[in-house]
Design brief:
- By secondary structure, the chain is α+β, with helices and mostly antiparallel strands.
- It has one domain: Gcn5-related N-acetyltransferase (GNAT) (Aminopeptidase, 3-Layer(aba) Sandwich).
- The protein has helices at 15-28, 37-40, 45-58, 104-118, 134-141, and strands at residues 5-9, 61-68, 71-80, 87-95, 123-129, 145-152, 160-167.
- It has a 7-stranded mixed β-sheet, sandwiched between helices.
- Helix 1 (15-28) packs across helix 3.
- The protein starts with a strand and ends in a 6-residue tail after the last strand.
Length: 173
């Protein structure tokens, strides 16, 4: 019998698990994120811990962990805009390769979307690498639509990113 997946908010004390997942994500999918593994490897343990502590008290952040049984298998981070809390920004979405195709990405999205709706937000924004990727297809399947023009992933990068927007009143998640 397979273990059931679950999604929940990271606890501030789980910074070591967050650090491990985030570094695995950057190593596995370097062209899916604006940050670089080399940069985040330089962060101190105190900085990793502080990021979750700050998120737990900000009222604007929802750092999520996806688990299969007790095994950490993915993450995502939703953040309400400080200047415009009606818009939720979603980033750091990643599922470990061994657990892809089992609905964890969709579960992370649904949890983040529901959190945004519960806050009374109007929309969610994210950036995704251009192309016919599983991430792009997942976002489209729950109602995200491309908006604006593409831009480089990072300064000097040939990889392009497309911003996508989900209007909550049209959500099909």
């Amino acid at each position: 019998m397979s273990q059931l997946p679950s999604v929940r908010q990271f606890q501030s004390s789980e910074w070591k698990i967050y650090k491990d997942l985030r570094l695995r994500a950057l190593a596995d999918s370097p062209n899916a994120f604006g940050s670089l593994l080399s940069i985040e490897l330089e962060l101190t343990d105190a900085q990793w811990a502080e990021s979750l502590v700050a998120a737990s008290v900000s009222g604007l952040d929802l750092p999520l962990i996806a688990c299969v049984g007790a095994e950490p298998a993915g993450l995502a981070w939703a953040k309400a805009g400080a200047m415009d809390p009606s818009t939720i920004h979603l980033f750091q979405v990643w599922v470990a390769p061994a657990h892809r195709g089992r609905g964890l990405g969709r579960s992370l999205l649904r949890t983040a979307i529901q959190w945004g709706r519960d806050r009374g937000a109007k929309a969610m924004l994210l950036g995704v690498t251009c192309g016919d990727t599983s991430a792009f297809r997942l976002y489209v399947s729950v109602g995200f639509k491309p908006v604006g023009t593409t831009r480089p992933l990072r300064p000097g990068s040939q990889v392009q990113v497309q911003e996508m927007r989900l209007e909550f009143h049209q959500c099909g998640a």
